[in-house]
Amino acid sequence: MLLLLLFAVIPFVAAASNGVLFTSSVTYCEPPETLLIQQFDLTYFAQNQSIFFDIAAASVQKNLNVSANIVLNAYGMTLVNITVDLCSILGGALCPLPTYQFNGSETISLPASLGVSKRIPEIAFRIPDFEAYAQLTLTEATTNDVKACVQATLSNGWSTRQPAVEWAIGILILLLLLAGLWQTLRSSLHPLLAHRLVDLFHLFQFIATTGLFSLNYSLLYRAFTLNFAWTLGLVSSSAIQAAIDSMRSRTGGTMPNSSSTSAVGLVDRKLSPWNTNLAVPSAAQSMLLADTDYTPTGYTPTNLSRIALTQVQRLDSTSAQVQTVTTSSSNVLQAGIPIYVNSIHIGSANAFDTVFIVALVILAITITLSLILYGLLLLADRLDWGSDTQRRRYRNMFPGFIKSWVLRLALIAWPPILLFAIYQWTLKDSWLSTLFSVITFLAVSALIIWPTFQMVRLVRQHSTGIFDVPDSGHYEPLYGRFRAPRYFFYIVFLAAIFLRAVVVAAGQGHGLTQIILCLIIELAIVLAHIFLKPFKTRRGDVFSAYFSIVRLVCTGLMIAFVESLTVAAIPRVAIGAVIAVILSIAVIVLVCNIVFSLVRWPWQRRARQATLTETSTLEKGQSPPRSIHDRPSSPSSASTPTARLSSSTANLTHQ
Ligand SMILES: *[C@@H]1O[C@H](CO)[C@@H](O)[C@H](O)[C@H]1NC(C)=O
Ligand SMILES: *[C@@H]1O[C@H](CO)[C@@H](O)[C@H](O)[C@H]1NC(C)=O
Ligand SMILES: *[C@@H]1O[C@H](CO)[C@@H](O)[C@H](O)[C@H]1NC(C)=O
Ligand SMILES: *[C@@H]1O[C@H](CO)[C@@H](O)[C@H](O)[C@H]1NC(C)=O
Ligand SMILES: *[C@@H]1O[C@H](CO)[C@@H](O)[C@H](O)[C@H]1NC(C)=O
Ligand SMILES: *[C@@H]1O[C@H](CO)[C@@H](O)[C@H](O)[C@H]1NC(C)=O
């Protein structure tokens, strides 16, 4: 698993010798008048200095003399800003602008005299999630009216979003789920792996959530967090999205549908990768082309296929593939959840419904598996499989097993459902989506809040620690890791998840406020760790405190992404990379911990078995067959030598 993660990172470090730059999105920056574009793919190969283009465009206005302005902006710096009067080049072939439909796809070698290779720094081909765009503006020479404006973002194909990483964390989760199920079935004293499954999910969900704030993330960091989007239930599938689109449009939804095209073209121009709020004319401005004789010899537009203009239909900009994005148009994606979910082809208003459908699928799988398991138990009774005592043991532990796993699933589903349900309420879109969100929110919250009430009631009734209360076994996913006097500490984590979801979902559009509130939340968790020392061992406290400090530090570093601070693009990329590294290390630490406990587990089981045989007579006298979640007395209430012994084995598993 680690190797897979590493392999995903290596490509960025390795030199990309055969670098390419290509257009990753094309949009109009003014409503199209003169120049209509159906397709615009441009690729520059550094290796052989050639350009591949696949362009379908039409110039439709007659008798128009224009000057062309080309701007190239990388990381907020204007690298190129040249204006060419088209009447003064190519012997006037473009003056007035010829009207024709141009459909062409060709690879051409750039003449060395242009010296393009010298002007594109090597890093542009290597840095993941390159932030750059090119803009072509045609201005009527006499009136200065903008006749056409086209923007295209550039990419080099490298990204911190890697399918390999998504698969790796998926396989990791699956293995851990199987190990956790096995461990709870083998009546482990303390299902550490099952706890770690919830922990790992919550860590991944935290990482994904850091991409949802209304901040001006660097493209690199947003792409990194998108690796973890599926842990929030954001699984994009065009079939599901189409179904949600039609469901919303029939129930009063008016927000834009999901789109299968790249969302980067719709991103607010103030944000990465556009960075127009930072655009400063740089010294490099006059560097390109100004000192060369800009006459592409041997290659003139007259050599391109000309097609009669009668075939060209004026494109309706709403139905066209190429959209118009201006500061005043309504299709601009704002920072936060809209950009994040649209980057994975999920419409902003479809976000909750997507999570909802994924949750339904998981619910269906859970119910099916439970029924199969129950059926197996009945079948075992019928066919006399195994010994009587074995069958009784499994029958006894079945309800507790199901209850505790439902609780774990609820703990995993709670953060995304909270977040996207609250976000759905802020949208006022389809009433059916809102209804679903209210129901799901209440149902999943009840699955978590009800056990909490039950536990408080049980503890009151028995006036002992929770660990000595019989029938509390299936609430173990909540309290099991904490020492007896601090059994309620899980509420700190749940409260943090709740508050974080409220801040992120309800605070969309207020990045600075979101970050400050989240910093307070994370700080509170760190302080709670320091003052309450909730875990059974010092190592457990340190381990959990480490993750809360990681969350605090990463949230703090994200201040650099606050839009109003207008931090330059390159520092934002660097800070994004630092946060990504810190979070990746946290993931690796957690995974290593899981691997170690997996390796040590059989040994612990043997140690426990020894204690169990020692205490078996005692236990039989005391209580009916123990459910898997019954545990020995906690260290604080340990009084008999056997209890001390078994609690010391339990300690081994807690960290
Ligand atoms: C465009 O420029 C050409 C050549 O300079 C000139 O003959 C023509 O009248 C101009 N057309 C307009 C509309 O200005
Ligand atoms: C390009 O240069 C022109 C003047 O030379 C200036 O008006 C324009 O704002 C510049 N564009 C950008 C994007 O810097
Ligand atoms: C040019 O390309 C556009 C879009 O791909 C297409 O609709 C049109 O039919 C093509 N025209 C010709 C003459 O090939
Ligand atoms: C340049 O190299 C790319 C692949 O590396 C190739 O697809 C393209 O055809 C080459 N261009 C020329 C003009 O040979
Ligand atoms: C979304 O798609 C549905 C069909 O799936 C359509 O009826 C509806 O008009 C679309 N809504 C928007 C805003 O484009
Ligand atoms: C167009 O360019 C190609 C090479 O790209 C050349 O073979 C052809 O002869 C040219 N056609 C005309 C009409 O100049």
What are the salient characteristics of this protein?
655 residues; alpha+beta; Immunoglobulin-like; 10-stranded mixed β-sheet; 10 strands; 49% helix; binds 2-acetamido-2-deoxy-beta-D-glucopyranose
How would you sum up this structure, described in words?
Keywords: Membrane, Signal, Transmembrane, Transmembrane helix. Belongs to the transient receptor potential (TRP) ion channel family. Its main location: membrane. This is TRP-N domain-containing protein. It is a multi-pass membrane protein. With 655 residues, this protein is of the alpha+beta class. The protein has two domains: 201 residues, Sandwich (Immunoglobulin-like); 370 residues, no CATH class. The chain is 49% helix and 12% strand. It has 16 helices and ten strands. Strands 1, 2, 3, 4, 5, 6, 7, 8, 9 and 10 form a ten-stranded mixed sheet that branches. Helix 8 packs antiparallel against helix 9 and helix 9 crosses helix 10. It is elongated and about 95 Å long. It starts with a helix and ends with a helix. The relative contact order is 0.12. It binds 2-acetamido-2-deoxy-beta-D-glucopyranose (6 copies).
Can you give me a brief rundown of this structure?
This protein is α+β, with helices and mostly antiparallel strands and 655 residues long. Helices cover 49% and strands 12% of the residues. It has 16 helices and ten strands.
Tell me the series of helices and strands, N- to C-terminal. HEEEEEEHEEHHHHEEHHHHHHHHHH
Number of H- or I-type helical stretches: 16
Uncertain spans: 1-8, 12-17, 279-320, 615-655
Bound molecules: 2-acetamido-2-deoxy-beta-D-glucopyranose
Q: Based on CA inertia axes, which overall geometry fits?
A: elongated
Radius of gyration: 30 Å
Describe the sheet with the most strands: 10 strands, mixed
What proportion of the residues form beta strands (DSSP E)? 5-15%
Please estimate the helix content. 40-55%
Structural class: alpha+beta
Number of domains as seen in the coordinates:
2
Report how far apart the termini are: 22 Å
Number of strands: 10
How would you state the average pLDDT, rounded? 81
Keywords: Membrane, Signal, Transmembrane, Transmembrane helix
Signal peptide: 1-15
Main location: membrane
GO cellular component, one term: membrane
